[in-house]
Design a protein that fits this description.
By secondary structure, the protein is α+β, with helices and mostly antiparallel strands. Helices cover 30% and strands 31% of the residues. Bound molecules: coenzyme A.
């Protein structure tokens, strides 16, 4: 699905697949160390072949992953979002996101989050959790955006956030439609690493 960003340009949000292996590896190499640390809670200079297979060759039921690609340069992955179902509690899943540094604050993260929440509802997942470094307010905002009730368990340097999803799907389509009505609504100041000090109009 094509989804407008805050500046009116559009990205394509689609399911990831094994054909994305090389694109994902390249996108990862372009991330700043701060963004990699926020996503993986540690250093990961490059993705191994095992990592790439795990991250791209997903069944889209127990492991759902979406990418946002540039509409005009579809070989460029701008963001990735996924959830992995907990086999012990199949109505819950662990979610994670990353948006390439120069596109953070443009609305890709929230579009991916809403797309992930739609897929969760379609697959019978009722709540999504995520681990993030304390102070990662952009990530916390994404979890807030996806659901209704949000619980945050603060655990020293990391926070465990859980959101209960509303039982409605089709929200990404509505988000795209509402952005088309209001292009250029607002932007978030882009700062490398996902920790932006302020929101700008
Ligand atoms: C977290 C991340 C995916 C967000 O993606 P993004 O494209 O920058 O997000 P958006 O521009 O859609 O903004 C998402 C929300 O965060 C809010 N936000 C962004 N920065 C914020 C900040 N510093 N403080 C508070 N809210 C912030 C936005 O207002 C927006 O909220 P809204 O949709 O309710 O208006 C991105 O910053 C990133 O890749 N960070 C590094 C990796 C990471 O932290 N991953 C999460 C680990 S699970």
């Amino acid at each position: 699905m094509f989804v407008p960003l805050h500046d009116g340009s559009e990205v394509l949000i689609r399911a990831i697949g094994p054909q994305d292996a090389a694109l994902l590896r390249r996108a990862h190499q372009l991330l700043s160390p701060e963004t990699v640390r926020d996503r993986f809670l540690g250093a990961k200079p490059r993705l191994s072949s095992t990592d790439v297979r795990y991250l791209t060759d997903v069944d889209q039921h127990a492991h759902v992953a979406l990418v946002a690609v540039d509409r005009t340069r579809p070989e460029r992955i701008l963001g990735v979002a996924r959830w992995v179902r907990d086999p012990a509690r199949p109505s819950t899943a662990e979610a994670a996101f990353v948006v390439t540094d120069d596109y953070q604050g443009t609305g890709i993260g929230s579009a991916l989050a809403i797309g992930l929440a739609d897929r969760a509802v379609e697959e019978g997942v009722a709540s999504l959790s995520g681990s993030m470094l304390a102070g990662n307010r952009a990530s916390e905002a994404l979890f807030r955006r996806m659901g209704g009730e949000l619980t945050v368990r603060r655990d020293g340097i990391t926070n465990e956030v859980t959101t209960t999803l509303p039982a409605e799907s089709g929200r990404l389509e509505r988000l795209a439609a509402s952005r088309r009505m209001r292009p250029g609504r607002r932007r978030v100041a882009p700062v490398v690493g996902g920790h932006r000090p302020q929101l700008v109009a």
